[in-house]
C-alpha cells in the first residue's frame, strides 16, 4: 500500500490541470456565447481546469470591435498586464489562439512570456500574414467598413496603427512597403535585420510544444498555409524555390523560409527538437468541431 502522503500528493497532481488561456478570433469576443461554451466544454475534458478568455474590452461589443480596430502592439502589451495580474496563472499556462488570436499569443510569448506559456496551440492563425483581407458576412457592417479601409491603404501609417488586419497584411508583390511600414508582423517574425530581437527567439524556443492547426478547406485565410508558417510568392522566373500547390498558388513552405533556415525566431530550434506539431483539421476556417477535443486532451491541462 502507498503511504497516505504519497496518495494525497498523487491526487493533488491529478486534480490540478495546468490553467488555460484562450484568445478569440476576428469578429468574436471573449464573452460571446460561443467562446463561453467552448470554455465549458474544455472543463468537461479537464475537470477543475482554470480557463481565462483574453479580452481587450470587457464589454462584448467593444471587445468585438477591438478585433478590427486598434494597435496590435498596444493590445498585446495590455494583455501581458492582464495575464500577469491573474493569480491562477502565475506558474504558467497553456494557450489556445483562434485565428488572429494565435499570432497575438505568439507575440505575447516572444515579447513577454511572464508568466510563461507551456504549450501553444494555434487554430488557422496567420503566422506569415495574409495576402488578401478576409471577406465579411453580408450584414457584418463593422467588418465591411474595416475591410474597405484596409483595402484602400493597407500600408498607410494610419492603417498600420489602427486597423488590426492591416498589421498582419503581407503582400508578396510589395514586400518593400511592408518592411518599411509594418510594425507588428515584421517585428514578431524578426524580419528586419537591424531590429532583430534575440529575446523573441529565446522565449519562443522555450515553449514545450507548438501545435499548428491548418484548416484544409480554409477560404478565409489567404494563403491558408500561413497557419503552418508558409507564405505566398509572386510567381515569376526568379528561380525561387517554390512548391506549387494544386490550386496553382505558389507557396514557400516553413522549412524553406529564411526565417526558419536562419532561425530568426527560434522556430527551427523547436522543430528540430521535434516540438512543432502540424495538425490538419478537415474544414473551412475555424471549423474546429472534429479537431479540438483530441488536441485539448493531448496538449492542454
Ligand atoms: C527585445 O525584446 C525584449 C522583450 O520584449 C525587450 O525587453 C527588449 O527591450 C528588446 N530589445 C531591443 C533591443 O529592442
From TrEMBL:
The keyword Glycoprotein applies. Keywords: Disulfide bond, Glycoprotein, Hydrolase, Signal. InterPro entries: AB_hydrolase_fold, Palm_thioest. It is an enzyme of class 3 (hydrolase). Residues 1-15 form the signal peptide. Belongs to the palmitoyl-protein thioesterase family. This is Palmitoyl-protein thioesterase 1. It comes from Mycena indigotica. The lineage of its organism: Eukaryota, Fungi, Dikarya, Basidiomycota, Agaricomycotina.
Amino acid at each position: 500500500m502507498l503511504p497516505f502522503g504519497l496518495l494525497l500528493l498523487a491526487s493533488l497532481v491529478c486534480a490540478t490541470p495546468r490553467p488555460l488561456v484562450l484568445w478569440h478570433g476576428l469578429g468574436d469576443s471573449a464573452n460571446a456565447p460561443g467562446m463561453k461554451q467552448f470554455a465549458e466544454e474544455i472543463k468537461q475534458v479537464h475537470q477543475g481546469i482554470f480557463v481565462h478568455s483574453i479580452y481587450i474590452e470587457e464589454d462584448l461589443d467593444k471587445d468585438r470591435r477591438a478585433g478590427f480596430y486598434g494597435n496590435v502592439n498596444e493590445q498585446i502589451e495590455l494583455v501581458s498586464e492582464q495575464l500577469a495580474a491573474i493569480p491562477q496563472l502565475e506558474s504558467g499556462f497553456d494557450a489556445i489562439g483562434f485565428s488572429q488570436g494565435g499570432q497575438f499569443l505568439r507575440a505575447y510569448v516572444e515579447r513577454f512570456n511572464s508568466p510563461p506559456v507551456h504549450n501553444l496551440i494555434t487554430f488557422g492563425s496567420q503566422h506569415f500574414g495574409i495576402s488578401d483581407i478576409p471577406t465579411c458576412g453580408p450584414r457584418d457592417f463593422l467588418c465591411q467598413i474595416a475591410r474597405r479601409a484596409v483595402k484602400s491603404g493597407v500600408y498607410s501609417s494610419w492603417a498600420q496603427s489602427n486597423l488590426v488586419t492591416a498589421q498582419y497584411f503581407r503582400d508578396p508583390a510589395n514586400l518593400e512597403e511592408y518592411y518599411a511600414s509594418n510594425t507588428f508582423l515584421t517585428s514578431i517574425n524578426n524580419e528586419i535585420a537591424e531590429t532583430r530581437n534575440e529575446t523573441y527567439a529565446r522565449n519562443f524556443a522555450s515553449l514545450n510544444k507548438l501545435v499548428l492547426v491548418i484548416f484544409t478547406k480554409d477560404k478565409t485565410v489567404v494563403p491558408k498555409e500561413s497557419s503552418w508558417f508558409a507564405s505566398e510568392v509572386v510567381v515569376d522566373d526568379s528561380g525561387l524555390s517554390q512548391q506549387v500547390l494544386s490550386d496553382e498558388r505558389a507557396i514557400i513552405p516553413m522549412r524553406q523560409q529564411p526565417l526558419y533556415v536562419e532561425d530568426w525566431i527560434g522556430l527551427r530550434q523547436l522543430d528540430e527538437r521535434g516540438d512543432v506539431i502540424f495538425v490538419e483539421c478537415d474544414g473551412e476556417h475555424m471549423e474546429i468541431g472534429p479537431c479540438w477535443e483530441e488536441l485539448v486532451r493531448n496538449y492542454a491541462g
